[in-house]
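B., you asked whether I could sanity-check this one before it goes into the benchmark set. Here's the sequence:
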Amino acid sequence: MARIAVYPGSFDPPTLGHMDIVRRASGLFDELIVAVGINRSKSPFLTVEERVEALGCCTSDLPNVRVDSFSGLLIDYAKTVGACAVIRGLRAIADFEYEFQMAMVNRELCDRIESVFLMTNWEHGYVSSGIVKEIAMFGGEYRSMVPDCIVPIIERAVRSHRADR
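And here's what the prediction gave me:
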């Protein structure tokens, strides 16, 4: 039986830190599903379709990685795809508190799906999607924080958001 893991997130936009976790997690499991969570209460920078497109181009060289999206409870999605683990990336101690709480809730909801925490490499520890969005919206240089293939997607989103104002 294949060992399937889900790496969920908003990925709005995907960063090099996200991709570091994807590459390392893909080596630990037979299949890794990078799952874009749909949160209807937030107004995203990139649409769900753009995030899926961005992740697809970033992972095209990883044959055991697929990209999907989901709404609702993560643990329900993980059960639906037959996952044995949920991957969570950590940058700092502040991330751990929240992620620990979520892992305990998920364990309460389904104790057969493990939470696996991976620390991002130190060079990506300061990068977050929020920082990339803000820098991009103000015309700053963000390209060193994201995979090259998603730069056109971010530029398109910046133009769209500026046109909306």
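One thing to flag: The longest helix spans residues 93-109. Otherwise nothing jumped out at me.
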